[in-house]
Write a structure and sequence with these properties.
There is one protein chain. With about 725 residues, this protein is mainly β. It is built from 4 helices and 41 strands. It has a 22-stranded antiparallel β-barrel. A 5-stranded mixed sheet has the order 5-11-12-9-10. Strand 22 and strand 23 form a beta hairpin. The protein is globular, with a radius of gyration of 25 Å.
Length: about 725
């Protein structure tokens, strides 16, 4: 798929029909020389000796073995070397070990086991999530740099996934009203040459192959390459697709105090766009869980992603470090689909359709200066940083017309195989946008002994220019915002923290993707998010972390339509209150656990339309339980099990359709055949429960997968 802008400012979309197969670290943004132990004796090592700390130059302090489900690195929440126990914010980390044990290869699969996070269907062609009740398609990051295009993200080149909860513009800038999701990349190290191969196949015929090679050339240069090939299949009719990805990386020591890292990622994803099932009488339509409510020859997505990134780390002294990153990303996407709309009856279903294409180029530059020093008995960790972004987006959308071009939707018979009548396409939307931002931020962390203080401010200038080529409207919007962050941490003992925090963020009126400004949006101020949180973090021993947080997240300045004047005002407000608990680590030898619970109460609290007040926010289950555990019976044999429970939730803010509560049980067996070869069997939905996992509105509801199994093998040498 290719989108080109002609000299007359129109946009042309060219789609090449691809051939389908039928079986078809953060280079984290803070650096420092010392990271204190949470609750165990410290052992000094070199940064390159610890896979969790490759982003740090020089000598650091680590705390022994890092394999398992728990780490103590909270740097992505502060951009400074801060243990998770000292971060005044809820944070969940999915380690490589946990994701491997669960047999997941895609980001969405891994996020099912994160409390406070629910999945949106993403229309069958993108990652889309709710974090603390806030929906987003754009709050995704790769090594701390924005990765905001709409596509599915693979885990083949990921060391861990970090989910930061609550608004916090100081770290991530605009958006991230409910939180942010950061993937930490695998990087090249100097330890030794290491190689890994993995294969996985499931009972539907889907399979994945991957390879990982770390190649130190000498004492100053190391290379690493990760690659994967996957073919998709599931229980749904006509569903298939394939994914190819490759990421070479390099680490170079330019001197005793300077290190350069660079990487390039190419991802190529093709798959059937499956929009799920419609609703009937306020519930998902049952009896058609395998039916594609579309056209198997038309419902298709094609995405190509190129991301090139480099980062320079330099240590001026034991206490002062600088890092600078530059990232260029190019995203090309095309998708087309027939989609169920308007509900269904016992005999009929309504369909609509469209195709859409987007080309986006992002350039991001970021620099951070981190200083650690003392003034008398007070310890300081100072962060000074700046970031700029430039993003150009071309977007088009053509809609389907039925009945010889007379109608934008059509009613067809409800059958196991849907028959889609002939249709034509007409232009519906076309736009170009140019976005530029500049940010400057400062943060101070004061260590007063039993009390620690965190405070900072971020300034953002957001400049968006768009052209609606259909409405022939040029929109321009400039926003300047200052966002604060404050935190108080009380530490009665080293392994216990009690904290209170306040933070803000904002979302400009163009929304998450910033493709076009309407005349109405051009006049609207940004939405605001405020997060107030109280929490506790306790490490009973070095391999276990217990966390709890209670919070109130308020979203205000939300556009709301007055039912009398029909004017859009910023009178809307919604509130999400709740708490969450987490236990992660190794409570006893041989047992690794990741347990979570969240309670969420989200509703519209203010609106220009009084009838909206009290509406429950979409896809916000009141109760969510996530549990995964692995127990190694011997050095060679282990067993795993998991449970995900979500209570009833509404498919949309209409509150007209309910996704019933469900509980999914998973299981696994692990066998170390040799020191190099490991085998595992994963069973998903062990009890074969019928459930509906996610939705995109009231009539795009995704059935959960039935009982299935996958067999995997890993070879390391």
């Amino acid at each position: 798929m290719q989108i080109t802008r002609n000299s007359d400012s129109t946009i042309r979309l060219t789609k090449e029909i691809p051939i389908r197969t039928t079986a078809i670290r953060i280079a984290l943004l803070g650096s420092a020389t010392v990271l204190n132990s949470v609750a165990m004796p410290a052992v000094a090592v070199h940064a390159e000796d610890d896979p969790q700390r490759k982003y740090l130059p020089g000598d650091i302090v680590v705390t022994g073995e890092r394999d398992g489900y728990v780490i103590d690195d909270g740097s992505s929440a502060t951009r400074t070397p801060t243990p998770i126990i000292d971060v005044p914010q809820a944070m969940t980390v999915l380690t490589a070990d946990q994701m491997e044990d669960q047999g997941v290869t895609q980001l969405g699969e891994a996020l099912r086991y994160v409390p406070g996070v629910t999945l949106e269907t993403g229309e069958g062609h993108r990652d889309e999530v709710f974090i603390r009740g806030q929906e987003t398609t754009a709050d995704f990051y790769l090594d701390g740099l924005r990765d905001d295009a709409q596509y599915y993200r693979s885990l083949y080149n990921v060391e861990r996934v970090e989910i930061l909860k609550g608004a916090n513009a100081l770290i991530f800038g605009r958006g991230a009203g409910g939180g942010a999701i950061n993937r930490v990349s695998k990087t090249a190290d100097f330890d030794m040459a290491e190689y890994g191969l993995a294969a996985q196949v499931d009972s539907f015929g889907a399979f994945a192959l991957s390879a990982d090679a770390n190649l130190p050339a000498n004492d100053t240069v190391a290379f690493r390459i990760n690659g994967t090939y996957e073919e998709f299949a599931n229980d749904r009719d006509f569903y298939d697709g394939r994914f190819f990805g490759i990421t070479p990386t390099m680490t170079a020591k330019l001197g005793p105090n300077t290190q350069l890292t660079g990487s390039y990622t190419y991802d190529d994803d093709e798959r059937v766009v499956d929009r799920g099932v419609p609703s009937l009488n306020g519930l998902p339509l049952t009896g058609y869980d395998q039916t594609l409510f579309g056209d198997p020859d038309y419902n298709f997505s094609d995405v190509e992603v190129h991301i090139a990134r480099t980062r320079l780390d330099h240590s001026f002294s034991d206490g002062w470090n600088l890092n600078a990153s530059l990232q260029f990303a190019d995203y090309g996407k095309f998708y087309s689909n027939i989609v169920p709309t308007g509900g269904a009856t016992t005999t009929m279903v309504n369909l609509a359709g469209y195709q859409s294409g987007t080309d986006r180029q992002n350039l991001i530059g970021q620099v951070n200066l981190v200083g650690q020093f003392d003034t008398g008995a007070i310890g300081h960790t100072l962060l000074l940083g700046a970031e700029f972004t430039s993003s150009d987006t071309d977007s088009v959308r053509d809609r389907a017309l039925f009945n010889s071009g007379a109608d934008t939707s059509v009613t067809v018979a409800l059958e196991d195989t849907i028959t889609v009548p002939a249709f034509t396409l007409e232009p519906q939307r076309a736009s170009t946008s140019e976005l530029s931002t500049f940010s400057a931020y400062a943060q101070e962390q004061l260590d007063l002994g039993i009390v620690q203080l965190v405070g900072g401010l971020r300034y953002d200038r957001f400049d968006l220019e768009t052209t609606d080529l259909v409405a022939n409207f040029d929109g321009t919007r400039v926003d300047d915002r200052v966002s604060p962050r404050f935190g108080l941490i009380v530490k009665p003992q080293e392994n216990l923290s009690v904290y209170a925090s306040y933070a803000e963020t904002f979302l400009p009126s163009a929304g998450n993707q910033f493709t076009v400004l309407s005349q109405q949006d051009e006049a609207l101020e940004p939405e605001l998010f405020e997060n107030i949180e109280l929490g506790v973090k306790w490490a009973p021993h070095r391999d276990l972390l217990l966390t709890g947080a209670i919070f109130r997240l308020t979203r205000s300045n939300t556009p709301s339509v007055d039912p009398v004047t029909l004017l859009t005002t910023l009178a809307g407000e919604s509130t999400v209150e709740g708490f969450e608990l987490g236990l992660v680590g190794e409570p006893v030898e041989g047992l690794s656990v990741s347990l979570g619970y969240s309670y969420l109460d989200g509703e519209i609290s203010e609106s220009a339309d009084a009838s909206d007040i009290g509406t429950v926010l979409q896809q916000v289950p009141e109760h969510q339980i996530t549990a995964w555990a692995r127990y190694d019976v011997t050095e060679r044999l282990g067993f795993g099990g998991g449970l995900v429970h979500l209570s009833d939730q509404f498919a949309s803010n209409s509150n007209a359709v309910v996704l019933p509560a469900h509980t999914r049980v998973d299981a696994a067996i692990f066998f170390e055949a040799t020191d190099q070869l490991s085998l595992q069997l994963n069973v998903e939905n062990l009890l074969d429960e019928d459930y509906y996992a996610s939705a995109h509105g009231d009539n795009n509801i995704q059935p959960g997968s039935p009982l299935s199994a996958s067999l995997g093998a890993r070879l390391r040498f």
